[in-house]
Amino acid sequence: MVLCLVIERKGKSVAFTSANGHMFSLLNKDGELGVRFYKEIQEKYFETYNTLYLMSHGAKMKGYILITEDMFTDMDLLVNLLKEGHHYVMSLDPK
Q1: Is residue 62 part of a domain?
Q2: Which of 23, 45, 58, 67 is least enclosed, having the fewest CB within 10 Å?
Q3: Is position 10 within any domain?
Q4: What does the CA dihedral 37, 77, 48, 31 come to, rounded to 10 degrees?
């Protein structure tokens, strides 16, 4: 089975994606991408990819991991990260 996910970029000055009324990816003003995950998944990615929380406007974006340049080299990984972020916000109560 192939799962296709259509994601639409939103935002004028700050690009983001959302579903179910919740953001799940964000491109900050420095051009860094963050994706939102369950806490357990964040911890796994912090260890596996030696990454940190995304920072935006000087604030730590809890729930969002920074997608590093190394992670960008693997398009399959990037697609899976976005799917996981989408899955997470779909599990939350709608806004």
Answers
A1: yes
A2: 58
A3: no
A4: -70
